[in-house]
Amino acid sequence: MLAQNVIFGAIALAMAAAALRVVTTKNIVHAALYLVVVLAGVAALYILLAAEFTAVVQVLVYIGAIVVLFLFGIMLTRAPIGITSDLDNNQRGLALVVSLFLFGVLGAVLNDAYGSTKLASDNVIQKSADVGNSIFQDYVIPFEVISILLLAALIGAVVIARRD
Amino acid sequence: MYLNQFLLLAAFLFCVGVYGVLARKNGVLVLMSVELILNAVNVNLVAFGAFHNTVVGQVFALFVIAIAAAEVGVGLAIVLLIYRNKQSIDLSEVDLMKG
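ok -> structure tokens follow
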């Protein structure tokens, strides 16, 4: 029990610091690399919550595919590699106020609603087989809709980015 | 472990993502902040799934991951198109529809 909390604290600190660096760093490539830390932290949280399949998918899809896509996007748009001061617009103060206010409201509501709710200490590992059964029995129609959506996004991305 | 520690961490990630969307003007960095927001939602889904001892939270998180992949693909295509037309991805210059 204690070990879980210590691990959670370490992961949470690393994720929070890396997330702040993603939105404040002046080097756009470093932002992508800090994003990897956040995504890996989320995968570790999934492991901590005994959701093994989702953790593996998180690593495969996010770190394996999406971050690489971001790096390609950075290269193709010839973004300034290295430190540049031209990544933020002039509404940083306002954005800070909005996000702090949002965090205050969310934190207050969450403390009010779930302040003392504990997770079951004998967290049952949710097997990949159960996830598969759930997707292909109860949620098979949403699954098919997602397939159509991915196809549409694939064709859409090719059509939009094509040189004609 | 309390349920709230996961929810509060997710709320923090969400707010950092909101700050990034509002304060960044580079198109790729805005998309990265959107990814932060989507991940915060996924942490919530999986945490509530573990709390209620059901796999449905994971199933929904997987759906969100698939949609996030589609979103990044189309989003980066749009950013590339903006770059090709304006030679820059500064989103504060994309003001064609500003009144």
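The CA atoms of residues 29 and 81 of chain A lie 7 Å apart.
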